[in-house]
Design a protein that fits this description.
2 copies of one chain form a homodimer. By secondary structure, chain A is α+β, with helices and mostly antiparallel strands. The first copy, chain A, folds into 2 domains: 139 residues, 60s Ribosomal Protein L30, Chain: A (2-Layer Sandwich); 160 residues, Phosphoribosyl-aminoimidazole Synthetase, Chain A, domain 2 (Alpha-Beta Complex). Chain A is 32% helix and 23% strand. In chain A, the strands form 2 sheets. Chain A has a 6-stranded mixed sheet, with helices on both faces. In chain A, β3, α3 and β4 form a beta-alpha-beta unit. Chain A is globular. Chains A and B meet through β1, β2, α2, β3 and β4 of A and β1, β2, α2, β3 and β4 of B. β1 of chain A pairs antiparallel with β2 of chain B, so a sheet runs across the interface.
């Protein structure tokens, strides 16, 4: 299929949010509530970030949108618009790329339903290449103040919203060749791996946090970044207490300790924040404390490797 | 080099424009003059859009920024910010990717010097992959009204700013194995191929145009898109009159007719517009007329293939 036709098929029916000038001109024009914009970008590469036998085109499209949306949420802003580029080898069928677009559209509809703000994909590019990749840029509308990684204060509690370890548990199942059908714990973890659902519903509460970031590379590693930026020490509660039932069940199925999935699994795209102890917003759970001291991350006061079995920690 | 270190090396010294929150958090925050933003994206893939033996890393970085900036200019907006993703095979040296970043920084500095508005690269991503690709998203600040492709009116003159055919002439030289050193016509055309220089200096004049677009796929093809969007016919003057001396000289060197480079060569990223006959802004030259009629593109009243030798026209 020629690129012009493929682009037309992908654009067909794509939500455009509130765009003043939608896709189709040299560039799109988007309205904002204030004269400023929030922007972030990520690329997903086949074999590195996804496998086509583990994720459908629509799954990859969903993930490309939601993981970028999580970065916008992590600033306390509303994801309002996306642009994306797809690189596609000649042997990948056009319907795979069209499905990427459909997954992007589904994710936009899901995000808009949670924020109440229209959201769409307003531009893009398609090119041939040797390897599938999907790069997406997200734009956010910031009504309040940006919530930064650097705002954690000693005395704060550390809070988290969203799933933890579900995506890693799902990936572990797929890596073990297990891909059950149904509605059990395994299926739901695989579902989170394929289609992460960042906690869009806590958006309004983010303005009450002192610091905030997206957990994309693992809880302990990302907490290390927050500790460094804020100049504080972060001490987590017992991570075993953060193993949700579904993640526990998958650990049992595979005969492995699920705590490393919670400690080091990325790509659930939950939100990690800090706030005053008496001001924990709905939707967040307390998972640790912010302390004075050199930037560091501990679990129950000990270095992570000793308590989690996970020794890949590097700030 | 680990990705974290590579990203740090690329970010080092990267201009940040007027960013309220620069690169380094989950997302950047940018100020705008009005509550709206202009956005466009493009991907460059090795072997498809560039060759590493023909373009340096810095050339690819420059081009990734300027070709996206041209899309922003083509809306009548000021390019103020970019984000970019680089996919890099393991056998490409880190210094090549660092050079991409340096070329991006140089392009931002060049754009800012022409617009008077600070401009930078405020975010990005780096991933390993099988093939080099660079995808960039540009953000623009729109003080006036967006100038669309759909605004051409019968009675308008067709105008152009920037180079025409220089990039195609440079590519033809490289394809012929010719890459002379020096400061002649050949070197300057190759220079335009490697580092296109869209006519940023005409930005203020764009608000006086009725229609505007970036010429990225060739003058006749892009004019066909404008004709279709505007519901008009576009008739060009003699294209031989648009062959600049440098392009003519390269045609002589290679023993070929240079008119097809003007008619069909993309990637000079000039600006194609229309305006009232008495209101041609400085920096633009008149190259045709807008007529009533079914959307079409002609040259001196004839179908392009008969007069240009270029028969690849497809609206």
């Amino acid at each position: 299929m020629p690129e012009d036709e493929l682009i037309a098929a992908i654009v067909q029916g794509m939500p455009q949010g509130d765009a003043l000038v939608p896709t189709g001109d040299d560039a799109a024009v988007l309205p904002l509530t204030a004269p400023r914009v929030v922007v972030s970008t990520d690329v997903l590469v086949e074999g590195r970030h996804f496998r086509r036998d583990w994720s459908s085109g629509a799954d990859v499209g969903w993930r490309s949108i939601t993981q970028n949306a999580a970065d916008i949420l992590a600033m306390g802003a509303v994801p309002v618009s996306f642009v994306g580029s797809i690189v596609l080898p000649g042997d990948v069928p056009a319907h795979w790329a069209i499905a990427v677009g459909q997954g992007m559209a589904e994710a936009c509809t899901w995000i808009a339903s949670a924020t109440g703000v229209p959201c769409g994909v307003v531009g893009g590019d398609v090119s041939s290449g040797n390897q599938v990749s999907v790069s997406v840029t997200a734009l956010g509308d910031l009504a309040g103040e940006a919530v930064l990684r650097s705002g954690a204060r000693p005395g704060d509690v550390v809070v988290h919203a969203g799933t933890l370890g579900h995506s890693a548990a799902g990936l572990a199942l797929l890596s073990a060749g297990l891909s059950p059908d149904g509605d059990g714990a395994a299926e739901r973890c695989i579902g989170t791996y394929r289609r992460p659902t960042p906690p869009v519903e806590v958006l309004d509460a983010t303005q009450r946090l002192h610091a905030l970031m997206d957990v994309s590379d693992g809880l302990l590693r990302d907490a290390g970044r927050m500790a460094k930026r804020s100049g504080v020490a972060i001490d987590f509660d017992d991570l075993a207490g953060l193993v949700d039932t579904e993640v526990y069940v998958v650990g049992q199925m595979l005969g492995v300790d699920p705590v490393p999935w919670v400690a080091g699994g990325g790509e659930d795209h939950g939100l990690l924040g800090t706030c005053a102890p008496g001001e924990v917003p709905e939707g967040f759970r307390v998972i640790g404390r912010v302390l004075e001291g050199e930037p560091s991350v501990t679990v129950l006061g000990q270095a992570p490797s000793g308590v989690t079995g996970w020794d890949h920690f590097s700030g």
